[in-house]
Amino acid sequence: DGALKEVRRSDFPEGFVFGVATSAYQVEGARREGGKGDSIWDVFCEKKENIMDRSNGEIAVDQYHRYKEDVELMAKLGFGAYRFSISWPRIFPDGLGTKISAEGVAYYNNLIDSLLEKGIQPYATLYHWDLPYNLHNSMGGWLSEKIVEYFALYAEACFANFGDRVKHWITINEPLQTAVNGYGVGIFAPGVREDTSIEPYLAAHHQLLAHAAAYAVYKEKFKATQGGDVGLVLDCEWAEAFSDKEEDKIATERRLDFQLGWYLDPIFYGDYPAVMRQRLGDKLPKLSEKDKELLSNAIDFVGLNHYTSRFISHVQKPRGIHFYQVQEMERIAKWNNGEVIGDKAASEWLYIVPWGIRRTLNYIATRYRNPKIYVTENGMDEEDSEISTLSEALNDIKRVGYFKGYIAAVAQAIRDGADVRGYFAWSFLDNFEWAQGYTKRFGLVYVDYKNGLTRHPKASALWFSRFLKGEDDEDNNNTEINKG
Ligand code: GBH
């Protein structure tokens, strides 16, 4: 891709948004406060062996009580937007959409107002994996078609209560993860292990229909008065063919269809990708004419969560989960000359491959009629156990390199023609990293778990801050934010 000059904010169009992201279960804590009902993650974590360090999000990083301090820090650093998620069981404790919790609504009103006071735009995700436990327990959660209606009621309540101030809505975060890891492999809540059966595809189907239902509610009742946008967030690891062999190239296209096409083809092209139908047969639910109509162009922007890349090789009986076996492919982290694709972060799955985000963005632009795109998550982690002192923790130079590389690649994708409108770093703070508990740290801001959950900006936060202010990178002695 040629030598890159240092990326600058002025490489981005006017109005381009830079923000930070989190999700409710990962940061809020306050499990039993404000009338909140349990979510499937509250219950999943009760089975200690589900989480690497046997932890949970009961307290997490306590954002429920510290949102003001967090918002102030975001503002000091210069971020223009905050992507957070609303906890469904904080709004409707039993999920049924009849008894709204005034305290739950008040919490998000306060958060949103604090953000706007500081000039930070709220980007709200309605569903980032914390389904009201009652909807799982009483009807099978995402396996039941009834959930579509309950999600629409919940979405409507959020639009009605917060939509005067929230202009960017994300319905669902990474439906693929809920489908494959929640209802197939079982490593995420609700822990259903039905990898070889219809469950993952049914859970995906209902998430798509729930997205479409919420999109329709917004369009019919709120769009004209509130004027916001509603999008869906998908996770996509870039897939690059392992060799020039035709079968590797086809397996690579297949891999992308099984990640993005699964959700975007029904919206942009009216049905699931043909290759999924061929390989899954009746395991893949059918979209009725009514479903197709509701889904048709039901998206104002595509949200992309992107972290890493792999080479894809066609393998008839691949190792790994059933979801990969039906795709007859293996994900490989080495070039065909044996060299690794990129440096590794802490998580086993995360290699640092900046060029992958440019290709993913260009792929979405070309394949799906150049939609508005937001990069809704991008970042890397370090291993908690490898950090021995606070000053070591704050000196996250590898993450600085990660952001410089990936953000420069986003700027290139924009020059290539992709309509990217914003970028959110994952994550604002170290937090509860799902099945990996607190063993991995994705934050720009360090959270001292042993010392009152105090917040300490890492070097990457300070780099970001200078980048946002358009300051020279050489000028890196600005430690203002760490004083006071
Ligand atoms: C995001 O998912 C999530 O939206 C966010 O909440 C999370 O904190 C962040 O990633 C960092 O992990 O499939 O066995 O490799 C990104 C997609 C899905 C990638 C789960 C890692 C790990 C389990 N991630 N996957 S596995």
Automatic annotation (TrEMBL):
Annotated protein name in UniProt: Beta-glucosidase 4
- Gene symbol? LOC109720316
| MF terms (GO), sorted A to Z | beta-glucosidase activity
From the broadest rank down, the organism's phylogenetic lineage runs:
Eukaryota, Viridiplantae, Streptophyta, Embryophyta, Tracheophyta
Biological processes annotated in GO: carbohydrate metabolic process; induced systemic resistance, ethylene mediated signaling pathway; response to iron ion starvation; secondary metabolic process
Protein family per UniProt: Belongs to the glycosyl hydrolase 1 family.
Q: Name one Pfam family in it.
A: Glyco_hydro_1
- Keyword list, A-Z: Hydrolase
PANTHER family in the record? BETA-GLUCOSIDASE 42, GLYCOSYL HYDROLASE
State the superkingdom: Eukaryota
